[in-house]
Specification:
Elements lengths: L1 H22 L29 H5 L14 H19 L3 H24 L4 H14 L16 H26 L10 H41 L7 H13 L1 H14 L4
Helix pairs in contact: 1-3, 1-4, 3-4, 4-5, 4-8, 5-7, 6-7, 7-8
């Protein structure tokens, strides 16, 4: 029953995420004007705004001018419903699970925006981070018990700080190799996503997720280079997908990590 409720919750949030994806990168208000057909500009009625089902009942076309509506909209809503259920599956308690689901949904939204625009709204990044924080509040630490450095929040700051330092060094090196031309090696947005990875996964699984993201990024780069000769490839989609995969297949990746450390003589 809870999975059904979380799916409905996610689909409704996904409907608003479509608005965020379309409007925020262009600097438009997410509230005004109300939802409307981009072709005939007619404001949609409430019955036309039912997430997922309205698109199905209308046959994927505008109720007024019959212009075809992209299937991307219901797919985003459906995916957000799945991510909300994943939050319930992976979270501890309903409230924490809801925040984890919201974090997944925002990471998905940020991935789409980053893929389309190679830039993401800062407010969505910060929101995703705090949703991640709220999702692990039941894992809060007690400094007096000596658990300070095991805190998910502290781990996230260590991850973000370390990656920022690496980013600065890499940017300086790339800048030197390109005759003074400034090319950012990794965006600050990526550092926040990596902080979320450290927050939700901890050190060991966090490292695994970042390594996996690097592999996914290489694959994505090759595909985009072949299909569209695109050189600049956003990193947030790879980071977000790697985080999700490691959380879903947590035990598998832990076992893989142990096998690797034993093989390398590190354990």
């Amino acid at each position: 029953m809870y999975y059904v409720l979380f799916f409905i919750f996610g689909v409704c949030i996904g409907s608003f995420c479509n608005v965020l994806i379309c409007r925020m990168p262009l600097g438009k208000s997410t509230i005004y004007p109300p939802s409307h057909c981009p072709k005939c500009k007619q404001n949609l009625k409430y019955i036309h705004n039912i997430p997922l089902f309205s698109w199905i009942f209308l046959g994927g076309r505008c109720a007024f001018c019959k212009t075809k509506i992209s299937i991307i909209y219901p797919l985003v809503e459906f995916a957000c419903g799945i991510f909300a259920m994943a939050g319930l599956y992976l979270g501890e308690g309903l409230v924490n699970s809801a925040f984890l689901g919201l974090c997944f949904i925002l990471l998905f939204t940020l991935s789409i925006i980053d893929f389309k625009h190679n830039a993401v709204p800062e407010i969505l990044l910060i929101s995703a981070y705090f949703f991640a924080v709220f999702s692990v509040l039941n894992l809060t630490f007690n400094i007096l018990d000596g658990d300070f450095y095991r805190s998910p929040i502290i781990v996230s700051f260590i991850f973000a700080g370390g990656i920022t330092i690496i980013k600065s060094i890499a940017s300086a090196w790339i800048n030197r190799k390109n005759n003074g031309e400034i090319i950012e090696a990794m965006g600050d947005a990526d550092s926040i996503i990596i902080a979320i990875i450290g927050l939700l996964l901890g050190v060991k699984l966090g490292i695994i997720a970042i390594l996996l993201a690097g592999i996914l990024q290489i694959i994505l780069h090759i595909i985009l280079r072949i299909k569209s000769n695109q050189i600049e490839v956003p990193f947030i989609p790879s980071l977000s997908f790697a985080l999700f995969l490691v959380m879903i297949f947590r035990d598998f990746f832990l076992e893989l990590f142990d096998i690797y450390t034993k093989f390398m003589g590190l354990k």
